[in-house]
Amino acid sequence: MSALLSAELLKLLRQPGILFWGFLSVPAAALGLKIALESFFVLRSGNLPQAQADALLSAAQSLGIAGNPIAQLLYAIGVSSVFYVEYRFSAWRNLVPRTGRIPLLAAKLAVCLLCMVIGLVLTVVGDMILNTALSFLGGGTSNKTPVQAGSILVLCAAFVIAFLELATLAAVTATLTIIFRSMIAAVVPVFLVGITCSILQAYFGAAIASVPMPSFAADAARAWLFIGAEGSYGITGFGTLLAWLLAAVAAGSFIFWRQPLNTE
């Protein structure tokens, strides 16, 4: 299994365009957007913006980028590219006899999840660096970015929520790529569902929080974490995300196991 993981990592490293735009562009864009907004504030007001009161809490809130439809589109493109490349070049029939289907599928998904974890870590690091920079520019660090002990647990919980949301996205995208053997047919539905969920949530708010969709589940879990919603929101959110993740992995594995690969 380690050899498969190394091979998939090497394959992805040799495709820097997919690696960046599919997995690393989201944290880069999040940091760039924050810098642009802070710069606009300086130009408009003439004053330096203040650092967040709690650096870890701010970093935890920044992980909400995992629920952004544009971010999910970029991640979906990255995941689908990792799986679709074998269909495009008809490489499955050469790889499967050597390693087996499920180990190969697991290695590809594991590499995608690893890249997503790296993206989340970079998001946290970028937010904390920006807060630290603002605290220095604001005239010292004695009381600018204190760290509360409870914020560490909040950051860990936010990281888990973001990871589960992205892992579900990866599993669903991989399954659709396997079913349709096409990147466009996998990425477009994922994006359309994501943007539709965002619009519905903007209109109906908490009224649709109980609908068992990954986007609603992740937002319900964040509502429990950040604004003190009822514990049922957190339980339902985590449970729904886990159910979607397991169902997508099982469906993708079964379909790939039964899929004829003589010409792929």
TrEMBL record:
Keywords: Membrane, Transmembrane, Transmembrane helix
Keyword set includes Transcription: no
UniProt key word Heme: no
Segments crossing the lipid bilayer: 18-43, 63-85, 105-130, 150-172, 184-211, 231-257
Domain of life: Bacteria
UniProt protein name: ABC transporter permease
Species whose genome carries this gene: Hoeflea olei
